[in-house]
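dumping this here so i dont lose it
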């Protein structure tokens, strides 16, 4: 499973997952989490036209943004002849990533994610979502820089 948010780190994680999948003949599940209104907004949002600060149409804009990211990831996987499934979730990103990964029906064996996303600028060593997933998930997590 690869959580995607459009950041360069999530794209690197997807690329790594594609390379790994070629050797293991595994399927990639790309997920995008539309943050809920109670999810703390990253500083980047202040400059982002999809900012959660402007809540009018936020869920619709973020869902479309996520669909674009997942479609681009799907195209990249198709070009590499890798099976890809996409999933959009709603809520707190780290909680939704963990909950989906641990759902037995999803069949997730590994979470591959970027070290940072579109998160808080002050988190220099590891992004907040990555940090929480690494520490709370019962599934193995691979962090890509």
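and the seq i came up w/
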């Amino acid at each position: 499973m690869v959580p995607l948010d459009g950041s360069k780190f999530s794209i690197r994680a997807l690329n790594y997952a594609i390379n790994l999948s070629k050797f293991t003949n595994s399927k990639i599940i790309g997920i995008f989490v539309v943050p809920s209104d109670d999810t703390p907004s990253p500083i980047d949002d202040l400059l982002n036209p999809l900012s959660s600060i402007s809540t009018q149409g936020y869920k619709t804009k973020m869902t479309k943004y996520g669909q674009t990211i997942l479609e681009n990831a799907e195209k990249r996987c198709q070009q590499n002849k890798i099976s890809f499934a996409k999933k959009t979730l709603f809520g707190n990103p780290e909680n939704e990533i963990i909950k989906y990964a641990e759902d037995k029906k999803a069949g997730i064996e590994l979470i591959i994610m970027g070290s940072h996303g579109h998160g808080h600028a002050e988190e220099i060593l590891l992004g907040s979502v990555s940090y929480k997933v690494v520490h709370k998930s019962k599934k193995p997590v691979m962090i890509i820089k």
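The CA atoms of residues 33 and 93 lie 6 Å apart.
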